Amino acid sequence: MKKFLALMKVSVKSMLLSSTNSRGRSKKKAASGAGVILLIAFLGLYMSGMYSSMLMSVLAPAHMEVLVFIFMGMGALAGGLLFTTFAVKGVVFGGKDNNLLLSMPVSSTALMTSRVSAIYLENLLVSLFVLGPAGVVCAFMTQSGVGRDPLFWVRLLIAVLALPLLDTALSVLFGALVAFLSAKVSKGALGQNIIMGVYLAAVFYFSFNLNGMIEGLAANAAGVKESLSWAAPMLWMADGIMGNWGLLLAFAACCIVPFALVVFGLGRVYRKAVTAFAARSARNDYRLSAQSASGQKKALLCMEARRFFGIPMYFWNSGLGLIMLVAMGVAALVMREELRMYLGLLEGLPAMPLAALVMGFCLSMTVIAAPSISLEGKYLWILREAPVGEGTLLGLKTGFELLFSIPCTVIAGACIAIALGLPLWQGAALVAVTLLFAAGHAAFGTLIGLAFPKLDAVNETVVVKQSMAVMLGTFVPMAALGLCALLYWLGGMVNGALALALPAVLLAALTAVCAAILAKRGPAMLKAL
Q1: Best CA proximity match to 88, nearest among 172, 9, 16
Q2: For residue 92, which of 3, 187, 180, 161 has the smallest C-alpha distance?
Q3: For residues 359 and 339, what is the distance between their CA atoms, to the nearest angstrom?
Q4: Measured between alpha carbons, how far is 116 from 347 in angstroms, rounded to an integer?
Q5: Are 79 and 133 a contacting pair, CB within 8 Å?
Q6: pLDDT tens track for 132-186
Q7: Taking Cα atoms as reference points, which of 437, 457, 450, 462 lies closest to residue 512?
């Protein structure tokens, strides 16, 4: 038992408490782990709180609150799969310390169980912050008084603990399939990107058709529940939370049994699977091929592009903001009549600053430059030996993010300006301000990547999802957006021109400071690595 707990501690640290540098390790581990928890908590609380309230407002009068837990359970299951499926490939099957751990006097099943326990804990966070708010909303908005029964919270806790078991079993199976395809197929990343693309398309479809779905629920809630018979475990969980102990126990069994089968089944062949995946990966990594790029800068840009599109975890976590940005612009253009009507109901709310704030939020989630240095890993010395100066290398890494963020910002800004019917000067100001923010964000990302490198990560997942550079590269720009909103409000007390000028001046100053520090101190910081 002592050996298993030690292994699980290592796996959990790899999953949640990854350090970002060899110096100051304990403090940065705690900060990085807290950042991951805060990110999951924020997304779960926001999505669950908003959608649970919307659903409960139309389902409570019909006494069909059970549907809220069905949909939130599906959301927690899908969210857990999104967070952990591709992480399984790196944490469970692709860890760089597998050779060391497999040589220890512990069974492969125990090692597999410890790795899977880390996946379970992350799924547990998703389940807690999705089902928990749904339970609070149900307690306050239900007309049946179920939330005032202490046993309701006991049943909800059982569901919160059991659902991640099913989520983890599915994540491990899908992660094993992803690892197998990546090892067998030279274009394995393409298949992973397609899977994630289909998933996001389904999410966008659900978001754009949410109002119609809610209207349909209000009209025929009982029929909707009957049509969900294919998701029997979610129905058992929801009915169990609302009071049916028999169905709740059936749901718990439905979660525990697959988890046990996956852990012990794959545990028996874990050593063979890890060895096979590693051997195949090594064969592909060192295959010689002709290089078609001509010129130093073009070759380096092609290298960045291969990494960006070749690592699905990097592409989807770092490029999701740009996808949302373009999707938002196109959706605004297609649904411009509904959008204008909605904004008309919000009297006194300025359209252009609000659009700039939303676009800035999407750009804040575009963390391409921040993890770029850390993704070089132990092979950073090869890049350093290239006949290119440090300033040029940093400029290329910063410019690579701008290579994507600039066209996406221009497209989204133009679409939103047309959709909102903004005057020409306001549309130009919207695009100019967001481009300024994008430039500052890219420079800050490269700078923070140099300040908080993680060159000894066990896999790319640790760098992209859990490193300090990524956390700061996401949340610090969001804080800057909040400061811009505050300055806009303060300036509006004087006159409209000052309200628009103050945020623009702040963004220009921050961008200039980041660019100046990167140009002056960046090369020395890169040499120090």
Answers
A1: 172
A2: 180
A3: 16
A4: 51
A5: no
A6: 998 888 888 876 667 677 899 999 999 999 999 999 999 888 877 776 766 565 4
A7: 437
Round to whole Å and give the CA distance between 30 and 501: 39
Task: State the burial class of residue 350 (Cβ atoms within 10 Å of its Cβ: 0-12, 13-18, 19+).
Answer: middle
Q: How far is the C-alpha of 171 from the C-alpha of 121, rounded, in Å?
A: 13
How far apart, in whole angstroms, are the C-alpha atoms of residue 91 and residue 120? 12
Q: What is the pLDDT of residues 61-93, one digit of tens each?
A: 777 888 889 888 888 888 888 777 767 766 777
Helices within 421-528 (DSSP H only) = 424-451, 460-466, 468-492, 496-528
Q: How confident is the model at residue 284 (pLDDT cuts 50, 70, 90)?
A: very low
Segments in 92-187 forming alpha helices (H) = 98-102, 108-141, 150-184
Kindly state the tokens that stand for 246.
Answer: 């028999």
Q: How far apart are CA 505 and CA 62, in angstroms?
A: 52
- The three-state secondary structure class of 36 is helix
* Coil/strand/helix, residue 440: helix
Residue 19 has pLDDT above 80, yes or no: no
Q: Is 481 helix (H, G, I), strand (E, B) or coil?
A: helix
- Give the H/E segment covering residue 41: helix 25-59
Angle at 330 between CA 324 and CA 332, to 5 degrees: 95
Tell me the C-alpha distance between 358 and 31, whole Å.
27
CA distance 158 to 128: 11
Residue with tokens 């290089």: 291
Number of neighbours of residue 276 by Cβ within 10 angstroms: 16
Instruction: Name the residue with tokens 């109002």.
Output: 211
Which residue in this structure is represented by tokens 């252009």? 352
* Count of beta carbons in the 10 Å neighbourhood of residue 219: 11
Is residue 461 a contact partner of residue 91, using CB atoms and an 8 Å limit? yes
Interatomic CA distance for residues 407 and 329, integer angstroms: 12
Q: How far does the chain reach from its first CA to its final CA, in angstroms?
A: 40
- Please list, in sequence order, all residues whose beta carbon lies within 8 angstroms of the beta carbon of residue 165, skipping any fewer than 6 positions away: 120, 255, 256, 258, 259
Please calculate the CA angle 437-441-442 and round it to the nearest 5 degrees: 120
Angle formed by the axes of helices 245-268 and 270-285, to 10°? 60
Reference 454, options 395, 375, 369; nearest CA is: 375
DSSP 349: -
Place of tokens 């760098």: 463
